[in-house]
Amino acid sequence: MISGVLAMQGAFHKHKLVMESLGCKTLEVRTIDELLSVDCLIIPGGESTVMVKLLSENNMMDPLKSRILDGMPVFGTCAGMILMSREISRMNQDSLGVMDIMVERNAYGRQLESFETEFEVSGIPGEPFHGIFIRAPKIVSTGRMVQVLAELDSVPVLVRQGNMLASSFHPELSGDSRIHQFFASMVK
Length: 188
Ligand code: GLN
Description:
With 188 residues, this protein is an alpha/beta fold.
């Protein structure tokens, strides 16, 4: 299987290394052809406005949306999750709109703009996961089909809807590949 990592902008390199450490082939995705040749895709953290702009300029918004709606497993982390969300609270910003979550950008507040903490992840046994949040988006509501896999103070931070997985935090920075492994297991 080839795991794609969207590489228009942002923190894609570490995701690539984690997937490779799990024995997956990886491909940095910057074109429609590359998008069509991967079996799954990670949309990394970064700056969601810039990612949307670059995807639009490369005519990749619709092809990416179609692949996700056709069932390609996709994992959006931080800005990647913002891109996947149905609605971005209080902002007039474009997204793919594929996942039934509403998010608020940079919503963990000034003091806590970036922080690290631990939480349990349902379906992933063992130690709690160490989450690194960097100017993270907050999930403010989830639709009926969305399964909450981890939460922090009753706010979801890792969610799944069928072929889509999304996190507020940066799982590639924790030195713990269990969430990537979970994602790999979603790829048939
Ligand atoms: N604050 C960024 C945004 O709104 C997301 C930050 C991140 O991906 N680490 O796009």
